[in-house]
Amino acid sequence: MTKAVAVRLGAFAGAVALAFAGAFALGSAVDPVAAADPAPSAGEHADGGMAGMHSDPGAQPPGLAVSQSGYTLVPEATFFQPGKAQTLAFTIQGPDGKAVTQYTQTHEKDLHLIVVRRDLSGFRHVHPTRAADGTWSIPFTFTAGGQWRIFTDFQPTALGKTLTLGADVNVSGLYIPVPLNEPASAYSIDGYDVTLAGSPVAGKESELTFSVSKAGKPVTDLQPYLGAFGHLVSLRGGDLAYLHTHPSAEAKAGMKGGPAIKFGTTFPTAGTYSLFLDFQHAGKVRTAEFTVTVGSDGTAIVPPSELPGAEEETPHGH
């Protein structure tokens, strides 16, 4: 082997080593294993993914880790085909290394599954079924190629608090990023108009008010969905930090809600967030999507000049 060839091979080996080191670092940043945190003491409110980050705004936001408090999200497969119905399956492994089979319901379900592409398109909030061995599964169709994030929001009975774990899966095919919508205070879907008002401030609980109307008239008979009149998931741009909050008014049997749905949400940092509001009317769940820029000065989300029924509060009686 000539000296020149040896030098080139040495340089190539060094470049490969650096590439693998970089890939390892990136993977660790995307799916870290969170440090174990203690269970809440007696009498302490157990805030988790569902409740947002009211108790400790400085803590790591939910959804950034694949493992936390001894519990780990383990997808059965991480490669899928686009546009084809497949089975999305996973387990939640407990501290003993076995699949968890005992859960405490949160908002009428043992586990909530959020699936979204990393460009924040294709959002879905679904509920898989659990087999006796602890395996969760659901038929699922990924709409386009790219890297997708799956979030599991649940409360193990043995832990006593809610966790949100996240992991990436890959969908083959050409990846064409979908740009975020520009920040706006109104969104239309299936003939419904949803408006948003509020003054979010990073690191502090902020009130957000969504108002639902149809054909220019306030919707005053929103139906309960999983024990609430609305479900709000907020994802931070860049790393998809996850916040899942619920409205201040509980949806009890026989009640009707709307047009306004209010949430108390803590955005951990300044930045751009995508908000996904699920609401149910006429027997169907719809999702309104908003892009919100959160700063440190409480810049208002200016509502349209006409905000039908925004002053009305949920819920209503029979």
Give a quick rundown of the structure:
The chain has one helix spanning 3-30, and strands at residues 67-68, 71-75, 79-80, 85-93, 111-117, 124-126, 129-130, 136-141, 146-154, 163-171, 186-189, 192-198, 205-214, 217-218, 231-236, 242-245, 260-266, 271-281, 284-294. The protein is mostly beta strands and 318 residues long.
Description:
It is a single chain. It is built from one helix and 19 strands. The model is unreliable at 1-30, 38-55 and 305-318 (pLDDT under 50). The chain has one helix at 3-30, and strands at residues 67-68, 71-75, 79-80, 85-93, 111-117, 124-126, 129-130, 136-141, 146-154, 163-171, 186-189, 192-198, 205-214, 217-218, 231-236, 242-245, 260-266, 271-281, 284-294. The radius of gyration is 22 Å and the shape is globular. The strands form four sheets. The protein has a five-stranded antiparallel beta sheet, with no helix packed on it. Strands 3-10-9-5-6 form a five-stranded mixed beta sheet, with no helix packed on it. Strands 11, 12, 13, 14 and 17 form a five-stranded antiparallel beta sheet that branches. With 318 residues, the chain is mainly beta. Helices cover 9% and strands 36% of the residues. The chain folds into two domains: 46-171, Macroglobulin (MG2) domain (Immunoglobulin-like, Sandwich); 186-294, Immunoglobulin-like.
Helices and strands, with pairings:
Elements: H1 3-30, E1 67-68, E2 71-75, E3 79-80, E4 85-93, E5 111-117, E6 124-126, E7 129-130, E8 136-141, E9 146-154, E10 163-171, E11 186-189, E12 192-198, E13 205-214, E14 217-218, E15 231-236, E16 242-245, E17 260-266, E18 271-281, E19 284-294
Parallel strand pairs: 3-10
Antiparallel strand pairs: 1-2, 2-4, 4-8, 5-6, 5-9, 7-8, 9-10, 11-12, 12-13, 13-14, 13-17, 15-16, 15-18, 18-19
